[in-house]
Amino acid sequence: MPNDLNLERVVRGYKSRVTVPESYVVQTAEDWEDLHQRLNKRGRSPSHYGLEYYFSTITLLAVCLGEVAKGSAVKIIRASDIGGRIEVDVQQNILGNSGVWQPYDVVFVPKVTKAIDFKYSDNPNLKVSGIRPINQ
Q: Higher confidence at residue 134 or residue 90?
């Protein structure tokens, strides 16, 4: 029986510097800074979100769709411990590949040391409305 991990959203957006589909597992502050720079076109620092991450107790998970059509979206729905690995359920709604948007989602979960599998499913009802950092 899967055990769902507590999942907290860090930031979800639709404009980044990531131009190809990618998924990330972030275990250190240095890796978070690197990923944040890839996500953020405005050059804000990771501390902009007003959150302190203690990588001894948490793991960040991120997904990016790359360049896709305006209105496309991605969202991490669940992370489950299924024994020997962690399964991350991701929903996506890709409206085309015209390259106008670069949607992404970043969450954190309790520290994970097991292998992580990202599983994508299509959800044509997934929208970009309400996308903003969690502290706003």
A: 90
